[in-house]
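Hi both,

Apologies for the delay on this - the queue was longer than expected. I finally got the 2-acetamido-2-deoxy-beta-D-glucopyranose-bound model through. Below you'll find the protein sequence and the ligand SMILES exactly as submitted, and right after that the structure tokens for the full complex including the ligand.
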Amino acid sequence: MRKTTAILAAACMGSALAAPSNNKRYLRDPAQTVTGNELAYEIPAPVSSGGKAWSDAHARAKGLVGQMSVEEKVGIVTGQPGVCAGQTKAVERLGIPSLCLQDGPAGVRPADGHTQFPAGVTTAATWDRELIYNRSRTMGQEFYDLGVNVALTPVTGGPIGANPVMGRNFEGWWADPYGTGIASYLSVKGIQDAGVVATAKHFLGYEQETSRNIYLVPNPDSPGSLSNQLPVSSNIDDRTTHEVYMWGFAEAVRAGVGSVMCAYNRVNGTHACHNSVIQNGHLKGELNFQGNIMSDWGGTWDSQAAALGGLDLEMPGLNFGGALGTFYDTSLEALVNNGTVSQERLEDMAVRVLTPYFALGQAETALPSVNVIPWNFPTANLTAANPYRLVQKPSTRTLIKQIAEDGTVLLKNNGALPLNAPARISIIGSKAGPGMRGDRNCGATGRLCEGPSLGGGSGWAQALNYIDPLMSIRQRALDDSSAVDWVLNDTDLTAAQYSAVQADVALVFVSAWATEEADRDPSLTYTYRSAVGRNGVYDGEALIQAVAASNPNTIVVAYMPGATILDAWIDHPNITAVVSPLQPGEQAGPALVSVLYGDVSPSGKLPFTIAKNIGDYPPDTLTNTTDINPQNDFTEGVNFDYRWFDVNNITPRYEFGYGLSYSNFTYNNLAKDATFHADVEAIQTTNEKFKGQNQGESLYDTLLTVSVDVKNVGDVVACEVAQLYVQYPDGVDQPPKQLRGFDKAKRLGHGETKTLSFPIRRKDVAMWNVVEQIWEVPQGQFTFHVGSSSRQLPLTTTHSF
Ligand SMILES: *[C@@H]1O[C@H](CO)[C@@H](O)[C@H](O)[C@H]1NC(C)=O
Ligand SMILES: *[C@@H]1O[C@H](CO)[C@@H](O)[C@H](O)[C@H]1NC(C)=O
Ligand SMILES: *[C@@H]1O[C@H](CO)[C@@H](O)[C@H](O)[C@H]1NC(C)=O
Ligand SMILES: *[C@@H]1O[C@H](CO)[C@@H](O)[C@H](O)[C@H]1NC(C)=O
Ligand SMILES: *[C@@H]1O[C@H](CO)[C@@H](O)[C@H](O)[C@H]1NC(C)=O
Ligand SMILES: *[C@@H]1O[C@H](CO)[C@@H](O)[C@H](O)[C@H]1NC(C)=O
Ligand SMILES: *[C@@H]1O[C@H](CO)[C@@H](O)[C@H](O)[C@H]1NC(C)=O
Ligand SMILES: *[C@@H]1O[C@H](CO)[C@@H](O)[C@H](O)[C@H]1NC(C)=O
């Protein structure tokens, strides 16, 4: 049992229950004609140069690698036994240590003494660039202080949220390439400014957990036995690949990301980690990526196909007792020794692993000793490997509270909020409370608790000190001498109603759980199969209905990891307000109190669309089949999330970019300025070409700046997010509108005005020309729409480029 739990705990990977300890399990049944390797060697692997930023680090890495034996080089690119989720092999005679790689997107995992940050999706809901950067910079410091060289974060567009039931959407940002691109750039930079190598993941087209690997087929007794089951193939057309799925990775490369993790799924039939078209062609070629491509844990299937297809670092290799198969190690040595894989290719793999290590100065400023919870706990000496080291700073609590406040989305308010000294408050639902077993007992993936503050899997992070809403509301209620009552048993509807019926306000707390290794319940409601609920069901819908039936001032606090269907009760006359903190992290309680009591006016806006019905989302974004060779055709193309609703004229419940405030704003003086600004942000430059390109010009130069005045005409100090959407010229095949800018006016007082601006880069008005394989800005008049959400866009301006 212990070993299983620990393996599940250890990385962004599937269960290793049935895995034998050699790579035979991956060999195809000879009767199977589909190999998953059809395109593996189509495009040769580009050799790194270090690019614009890393020529010194690259030369240094190349010099050292040049002195290494084949065995030493192979050690650098093969996962090694160790306490971290991933380790490389040290080459002590050359002063190169073993590098420690550790999860994950909301904080170090598994480890102690660090912060459970708000989820990516919550951070996106702030629409605040400074908070996105500060979160990653602070998180990066915690990785550094725990001795981690390579952080397995951020998610930069895999998933992007094209499939609303995808279990891992909470780890990412906006269901939109532009928003995700902004967050990718800032979060990579934040982590790396702390001296830790960031990992952009998962490349490419990773939009479902179901059938992502051989263990996650819907029916384990399916006709496909483990020996011939293939992971789902994401079949994506070239234009969508460029305009949606590569976009965030391009921004990660521009920010100088050191590692990119390839995905579990196949792309057009070929395993992502072997796919030379996406790895050698798109990533190392077109995006000019100079770092290393590392496999997701168990994402490699064949040594030769991976090495020639562009994979540099094979993880976890020999770690976890080799339970996920070891593909490099001696197999790679043999392939190099007989010339199947060139010496040059092996050298480049090792150089690509070591270049970011030197570029970020890790060789000079030796990191503190590694301090994580070892994957093989408790056989490892936990006391020795994990002496308690506090790395959370008091200022971090202020930061994550602010992110949780500013990422809270007020969905409905009939005047019930902010609370005004209610005499009797009733708090209903387990999700208001501290959890039945604290945080340390939730397992290293959070799955034993299904708490509301963060999703599960490798994207989970243990809280240092989870401050729950019940605790914070009780504390705050003392100021007003409010009587506070509560019922935390989700199935005791009698007690819930007894408490609610007597109160002036009933706050009912529900949460939709999401985790790696499973897609969400297909209903996307608050009723779903649960590992911790009674009879295996958590029935938040019944709880809401019971409370709303008994109190005319029912406020729903609805935690959500992504799109959730609210329509069964959203118009209930007794439900006077609905507020969603999304997944707020360990300062959940204090942040919620600030918003409920109006210390802070809510300013979060949805980074995804909430539909009225599940059927309103694009159909078939999830392939759920027992087929041994599952295919997911991305037929919606670029039209996912809000674009789908626009193209098909479907009215959502709450549109992308929606969120209420306690104040009111007016938008005036839309202006444009066509002053050219060359791209100065790129730390590394991509090779993305565009039509009519002159020497020195970049796809990321700013061609136009649109601005607008936002005035707070309400009574309270508040923040407002303004959004810009581009409409391409008539006749151009593009969605009706696409997000291409946002800016946030912060803490505006009554009557105060702020000018917000939206720089429009060449790429923001370009499209991918599939015939000429180049970006192109279409001729004609563009329209820029500006307003408070994707469907409240009162102002427009036009421009031709
Ligand atoms: C971000 O961090 C910087 C540096 O610590 C700080 O000055 C700034 O106020 C922070 N911004 C926000 C929005 O928290
Ligand atoms: C996948 O196939 C589509 C359709 O043929 C094509 O447009 C796209 O470029 C292919 N992508 C890759 C990575 O092979
Ligand atoms: C090279 O070695 C590999 C691994 O041992 C083997 O599978 C392959 O057939 C060999 N190729 C040649 C050309 O000898
Ligand atoms: C574990 O490590 C601690 C601290 O180094 C040491 O005191 C203890 O004896 C070790 N326990 C075992 C079982 O090796
Ligand atoms: C919760 O309420 C249900 C329904 O009344 C009851 O059966 C169950 O025992 C309660 N659970 C606890 C832990 O009290
Ligand atoms: C996949 O199909 C299985 C079997 O029909 C079903 O139980 C499961 O809920 C489906 N999963 C999703 C995410 O729709
Ligand atoms: C609203 O609450 C009242 C109790 O105050 C209840 O009598 C009524 O039936 C509720 N309305 C609905 C539609 O449930
Ligand atoms: C101003 O804001 C309040 C609170 O959100 C809202 O109820 C009201 O409708 C708004 N008024 C206008 C004119 O938009």
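Main takeaway for now: The domain at 394-616 is CATH 3.40.50.1700 (Rossmann fold).

I'll put the files on the shared drive as well.

H.
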